[in-house]
Amino acid sequence: MKQLTANKIFDGQQIQCSHHSKVLNCDMQFSVFLPPQAELGPVPVIYWLSGLTCSDQNFVTKAGAQQYASEFGVAIVCPDTSPRGDGVPDDLDGAWDFGLGAGFYLNATQQPWADHYQMYSYVVDELPALIEANFSVDSTRLSISGHSMGGHGALTIALKNPARYQSASAFSPIVAPMQCPWGQKAFTNYLGKDTGQWKEYDSCELIDVAETQLPMLIDQGEADDFLQEQLMTDRIISVAETKEFPLQVRFQPGYDHSYYFIASFIRDHIEFHSRFLF
User: Fold this and answer.
1) Quick one: average pLDDT of 40-66?
2) FRET pair for 19, CA 20 to 30 Å: which of 51, 117, 134, 242?
3) CB 32, CB 135: distance < 8 Å
4) Is 148 a catalytic residue?
5) What band does 203 get if pLDDT is binned at 50, 70 and 90?
6) Catalytic residue check, 224
7) pTM for the complete prediction?
């Protein structure tokens, strides 16, 4: 691991690092914010997963989360959204909704994607091991959050690992990727035509069969241009009500899909996770 940058902010440290990922078979970058409390001992961690076209830096520079992470005493880890590098395949047409910047937080089974696109294992196993070995964090107190494609990733990862995460939250998540164009394109290419594999990465399907519950919060902007065709928030509300799953969904009038929306409510999400991390 190599430290690339370190900046003091709100009495904590915002750090960016690079390392070689064996899981993704390429070099990767990630960012981590350490609150001032980390100088006294290990602190809880919130993993943040970003959306389509993003890197590890979008949340760091736009969300304004460091102030609240310092206030509540939590670290925030931001991985990249896909493998990167000259040998990593991309969408043949250069589309922004698939390939580089669009790893969908799953383990690809189809070629040429399977050699690199193993973002699920990277986020769940390899990156946390690296973080815990190098930073003052408590590996037993983890929560996860994200936006759009990253919201999909946060919810599905938490649902598949309910004993590992204390809570999960999302802004504008893709909750039913099996039913929307973004998800169908990604799943067909990464996972093939077997929809049985698709169910392993669909929040609605996972809630429907969940045996263990964990607290979840979703914020969705009512002015989001992607709400009806891609995000389909009503679907997860319906299945959660049927299964009596502890899901809180808040529709926020006038807010869109942007980081202005995230910055407006990120304190709520950090406070939400802190209830379960301390």
Assistant:
1) 98
2) 51
3) yes
4) yes
5) very high
6) yes
7) 0.97
